[in-house]
Amino acid sequence: MERSTIVRVHEGLHARPATRFVKLAKGFESDVELVKDGKAVSAKSSVKLMLLAVKENQEVTVRANGADAIEAIEALIGYLENPRAGLDDESEAGEGGSETAAAAPAPEAAPLAAAPMDGISKLQGVAASEGVAIGPAFAHFPPEIEGPGRRLRADEIDSEIERFRGAVTSVQSRMDLTLAEDNLSAGDRGIVAALRDIAADDSLTGEVERLIKGGDDAVSAVIAAAATIAADFSAVDDHYLNARADDVHAVGRQICLVLLGQDEVSLETIPQGAILIADDIGAWDLARAPLKRIGGVVCGHGGATSHIAIIARSHGIPAVLGLGNKINELRAAKEVAIDGNAGHVIVDPDEATRSDFNRRVEAAAQERAGLKIFKEVTPTRADGTVIEVAANIGSLEEIEAAQEAGAMGVGLFRTELLFMRHMHLPSEDMQAETYSALAKAFAPHPVIVRTLDIGGDKPIAGIEFPDEENPFLGWRGIRMCLDRPDIFKRQLRALLRAAVHGNIKVMLPMVSEISEVTRTRALVDECAAELKAEGVEHASFDLGVMIETPAAVLIAPALAKEVAFFSIGTNDLTQYIMAADRLNPTVAKLNDVTNPAVMSAIELTAKAGVAAGIMVGMCGEAAGRPDLIPTFIGMGLTELSMSPASIQRAKKTIAAMAAER
Ligand code: PEP
Ligand code: MG
Questions:
Q1: Tens digit of pLDDT for each residue in 477-495?
Q2: How far is the C-alpha of 264 from the C-alpha of 608, rounded, in Å?
Q3: Could you say which of 3.90.640.20, 3.40.50.970, 3.90.1300.10, 3.50.30.10 is the CATH number of the domain covering 122-142+267-369?
Q4: Which of 92, 141, 326, 446 is the most exposed place for a label (fewest CB within 10 A)?
Q5: Under the phi-then-psi rule, with left for phi > 0, alpha for psi from -120 to 50, and beta for the rest, what region is 37?
Q6: What are the backbone angles phi and psi of residue 506, rounded to the nearest 5°?
Q7: Residue span of the signal peptide, if any (predicted)?
Q8: Are 640 and 629 in contact (CB under 8 A)?
Q9: CB contact at 8 A, 48 and 241
């Protein structure tokens, strides 16, 4: 017996919905399968369901065979069509799935290479969590677990299966104890909960039991089964699922340790400020570790989207991951310096490097302390006009840091992360919730949301990008959005809905023609009319543009008549004015915002905006530079948006300008 339907589960059957679906399926005696594109998997295994990669709006078939097949199909189809119905207090969008724990934007992976630095060993890894640190090395290399490789006699098999089941139960109860702890952050809790799901999953337990029945001892069977499942996760073309391979290994290891009667080597003894060095750290181990004492993390495994990176970022611990075999060069290190922004690790630094790092760490701490008094300052220029010092952020998790810094709103909310962090395009509801939360958090200050700015260099699931010779000159930003009204309108509708909750403004990236603004405005009107007809609450918003192409600068006077504000994107503007790729270190010298060509482009833009009486702001990196802020304010800019870490320094700079007059 089977029935097909279109999946309405937000983002599809990723980790937590998969677990919930399995829980429902297990409530029925019947064998239940989920079929997608002709491939059928057991609906009683969340790992198998995740690997089926079922997305929102895809067609699937639920197939059941057994006494309660009708009821099973009814219930499971009901869940797929209306996942919120019958749920307890867990909300679909805010649930603690590990993927929702992602914090700051994932940095780009840097190439792995050892770079000599005046005879000192400097390793390059993935810059996974920003900040610099230096401290004693704390090597955490628990011995590899090897299966005894013993063949079981037929009469030993049942008891070995029992032993394995007991070990699984014991790992699950330990994880439950961790989950019950009050001091676990919501993000870390989501991660541990996802690991617990893996430990309980039929595809792991089923495969282990199959191997034991074939005569393998339990430890060898767990190692082999975890390796097979991890390989499946690694093979999927999806970063999120790839990172789950490390989770499967970590869970397998925990089960083996129980089977062997061993304890994991503890992180409890890590000294204050030490740099934790490991080939791999289970997310569960790290979440339970004394995080306040950890100065930095360096790992052979892991990338920017791994759970280790997420935990490190959310606790402000600098981290360099993905060193591969080079991690072995750190096994005997006594002291380690790391630069989590550049992905550098320096082993046993010499005196000069040590004092350089100590100076950077100390300078960062001192500056942070001295700047605190500027948090509540509202800076003004000579005529009393308020200069808004706002934050550039990319996720709701960064709201707190922005507020802590004293941000007067958000000058750039990069929506790409919202699209990149999920396996599927985010739904209108999910986007509306996100933008509303943002608007509420900063009201009455403005929150400028930038519409999706993505291209073929950073593709996202759900949008087919063509292969392009020059993606930075290609189908990206507003160009792509206008060609894909299905995606663009979903975002615009969500923004209109969120505008009810605060001071939402919207800006368009990569604009090079006036028609891009007029076409967007027509779409906004269309969305507003639809929402009105549907009786959905919404409000209008100011529409502005980023000035980041030479074309936009050259038509700035005409553009200014069409929009409510300009925000100068100096990162792209510099690369396009100078024709120097912002990611190419060979032309880094040309990629300089202070080049007179770029500065005059900024000035032309400011003049056009001021003449038209619209707000001119800046959200490129240059907005946070104390050496340039006085010039920008002199040109007429009244809003500067930057990373939260730069806000207090910028306020201090503007206050000092006032003191000079
Ligand atoms: C810019 O180009 O200056 C900008 C702020 O946008 P992004 O860095 O996201 O391209
Ligand atoms: Mg840009």
A1: 999 999 999 999 999 999 9
A2: 64
A3: 3.50.30.10
A4: 141
A5: left
A6: -125, 135
A7: none
A8: yes
A9: no
Question: Partners of 504 in the beta sheet?
Answer: 447
For a mutational test of ligand 1's pocket, the pick from 546, 581, 628, i.e. the residue with the most ligand atoms closer than 8 A to its C-beta, is 546
pLDDT tens-place string over residues 371-403: 999 999 999 998 999 999 999 888 787 788 789
| Domain extents in the chain | 2-81, 122-142+267-369, 156-260, 375-658
**Contact between 547 and 556 (Cβ < 8 Å):** yes
Does the beta carbon of 414 sit less than 6 angstroms from any atom of ligand 1?
yes
* DSSP letter (8 states) at residue 315: T
Q: pLDDT digit string (tens) for 497-523?
A: 999 999 999 999 999 999 999 999 999
Annotated ligand binding at 429? The verdict is no
Q: Does 548 show up as a binding residue in the annotation?
A: yes
- Tell me how far the alpha carbon of residue 254 lies from the centroid of ligand 2, in angstroms: 44
Give the total residue count for the chain.
661
Task: Output the pLDDT for position 111.
Answer: 37
Closest ligand, as measured to the CA of 573: 1
Instruction: Give the CA distances from residue 58 to residues 4, 6, 36, 70, in Å, rounded to whole numbers and listed in that order.
Output: 10, 5, 8, 22
Q: Which residues pair with 321 in a beta bridge?
A: 126
In tens, the pLDDT along 30-55 reads: 999 999 988 899 898 878 888 887 87
Ligand 2 centre to CA of 417 (Å) is 14
Whether ligand 1 lies within 6 angstroms of the CB of 446 is answered as no
> Cβ atoms within 10 A of the Cβ of 410, count?
29
Contacts of 308 (CB under 8 A, 6+ apart): 128, 281, 283, 286, 297, 299, 301, 302, 319, 321
| Residue segments in the chain with a per-residue pLDDT below the cut of 70 | 11, 14-16, 84-120, 183-187, 190, 237-240, 304-307, 310, 314, 421-423, 456-459, 583, 585, 661
Written as six digits, the tokens of 628 are 């340039």
Instruction: Determine whether the shortest distance from the Cβ of 570 to ligand 1 is under 6 A.
Output: yes
> 251-284: b or e for each residue (b if 16 or more CB lie within 10 Å)?
bbbbbbbbbeeeeeeebeebeeebbbbbbbbbbb
For the CA of 620, the closest atom of ligand 1 is 3
Residues taking part in catalysis: 307, 619
In the chain, what's the furthest Cα-to-Cα distance?
A: 91
Domains 156-260 and 375-658 share a fold: no
Q: Is 582 flagged in the annotation as binding?
A: yes
Say how many Å lie between the CA of residue 571 and the centre of ligand 2. 6
In short, whether 44's Cβ falls inside 6 Å of ligand 1 is no
Q: Per-residue pLDDT tens for 554-593?
A: 999 999 999 999 999 998 999 999 999 876 767 878 989 9
Task: Indicate the helix (H) or strand (E) that contains 4.
Answer: strand 2-6
CA of 114 to the centre of ligand 1 (A): 30
Nearest residue to 136 via CA among 23, 329, 275: 275
Residue owning the nearest CA to atom 1 of ligand 1: 569
What is the C-alpha to C-alpha distance for residues 363 and 375, in angstroms, rounded to an integer? 19
CB 42 within 8 A of CB 125: no
- To the question of whether residue 3 is assigned a binding role by annotation, the answer is no
Question: Architecture of 156-260 per CATH?
Answer: Orthogonal Bundle (1.10)
Q: Which ligand is nearest to the CA of 413?
A: 1
Q: What is the pLDDT of residue 443?
A: 96
pLDDT score at 459 = 65
